[in-house]
Amino acid sequence: MFDKILIANRGEIALRVIRAAREMGIASVAVHSTADADAMHVRMADESVCIGPPASINSYLSIPAIISACEITGAQAIHPGYGFLSENANFVQIVEDHGLTFIGPTAQHIRTMGDKITAKDTMKKLGVPCVPGSEGGVPDLETAQKIGAEMGYPVIIKATAGGGGKGMKVAQTAADMKMAFRTARAEGKSNFGNDEVYIEKYLTTPRHIEIQVFGDGKGKAVHLGERDCSLQRRHQKVFEEAPGPSISASERARIGKLCADAVAKIDYIGAGTIEFLYENGEFFFIEMNTRLQVEHPVTEAIFGVDLVREQIRVAAGLPMSFAQDDLTINGHAIEVRINAEKLPNFAPCPGRISQYHAPGGLGVRMDSALYDGYSIPPFYDSLIGKLIVHGRDRNEALARLSRALGELIVDGVDTTIPLFDALLAEPDIQSGEYNIHWLERWLENNMAS
Ligand code: ADP
């Protein structure tokens, strides 16, 4: 096992990893930009290294600075968290070339899944059902129009290198195709340096269901059920729950096994998430994320496992500490993402926290790097906390979420807390009847500015 690991991230996820390391008796090294000198992850880690100025490109994304920080402190392994360098195959290669361990999958797995066309092709070959669409990349507008006509509108044009909801455009009718095709390409090029796009049928009432998988890198893999992340704004998740309210035990077992078998076949190592759209009882693969997800705590809650501890274990060459038969679901969990954003437009709202009080009590987990007097810098993501509740069933989880939101105090900046108070009053949320378009429609009707 490692003696010391470095966390190449900030905020709540850096804390999450430091906590797992500490419970395992492993020392932790935080890295930070000059804007984060007073951040909680720096205070909580055993050691810290300043790796550059505020802009992420010169700090949290600076590979030489992070490798140097490992060398200076003697850290043997790097946990990337999510975002930043977590899905950068080149980084993984460099980490390994320096004799360090990357806590995550191999560069090859990241490369395969990071390109969505290659990922779909790989999954198809492994027997995983995909959204109907173009065979690979679509080179020009004429081909795109031909595919649109054949497949029938609406369709979605997606950048193969896309992520975080960027590089995706919907064409409702043939008349929209020209604009959608050009915009998706341009977004792919400007955000990811790759203008290759592909086309999928645009599903009108699906849920976003994702399967958590975990592999040992030696041909063994398990699944940890699904998360329903259908409540999204601009293709970004805001509320996640497990198990999915619409998924039966037999469907879970079937799709879960399919996913576990698929990743076992490619000797996948560590945590991964296979994302599907689910409509009329059918699953359609959309992409695989080769890292820990923001919403992993809902899975941890219902299975009673520590996914970060498990990531560190397999990275160190140890076997997984659970087999499929050990994994049983206990109750229901919900996570809401607390962002420093001003409603109704969700404009980022950095600033000084005058008062912070985290909720507590049975079944409540607050993952956040906030503290009284902390100043949220304007340079990074607006996620400032995740409130996770766990109950014996969905109704108890909902009641607990409402109670915990009532206890949570974040003063000094605007946050998305009022959004969740309002959502909890909605009959569709109470009954679990929503799909990926529900929240956008609700926002239009309830929060139009
Ligand atoms: P990203 O990598 O940017 O997160 P994804 O491919 O995971 O992109 O898709 C993100 C979200 O976009 C999905 O959860 C879903 O809401 C929507 N989406 C993606 N593909 C489709 C599709 N074929 N039909 C309808 N919605 C889609």
Structure report:
The chain is α+β, with helices and mostly antiparallel strands and 449 residues long. 34% of the residues lie in helices and 28% in strands. It folds into 3 domains: 4-92, Rossmann fold, CATH 3.40.50; 132-201, 2-Layer Sandwich (Dna Ligase, domain 1); 207-446, 2-Layer Sandwich (D-amino Acid Aminotransferase, Chain A, domain 1). The chain has helices at 11-23, 40-44, 63-73, 89-97, 107-114, 116-125, 141-151, 177-192, 249-265, 296-303, 307-315, 394-407, 417-424, 427-431, 438-447, and strands spanning 4-7, 27-33, 47-52, 77-79, 101-102, 155-163, 166-171, 197-201, 207-216, 221-233, 236-242, 269-279, 282-289, 332-339, 341-342, 347-348, 351-352, 355-357, 364-368, 375-376, 383-391, 409-411. The strands form 6 sheets. Strands 13-12-9-10-11-14-21-19 form an 8-stranded antiparallel sheet, sandwiched between helices. Strands 3-2-1-4-5 form a 5-stranded parallel sheet. A 3-stranded antiparallel sheet has the order 7-6-8. Helix 4 (89-97) runs antiparallel to helix 5. The N and C termini lie far apart (54 Å). The model has no long low-confidence stretch (mean pLDDT 97). The chain binds adenosine-5'-diphosphate (ADP). The site of adenosine-5'-diphosphate has 20 residues, from strand 6, strand 8, strand 12 and strand 13.
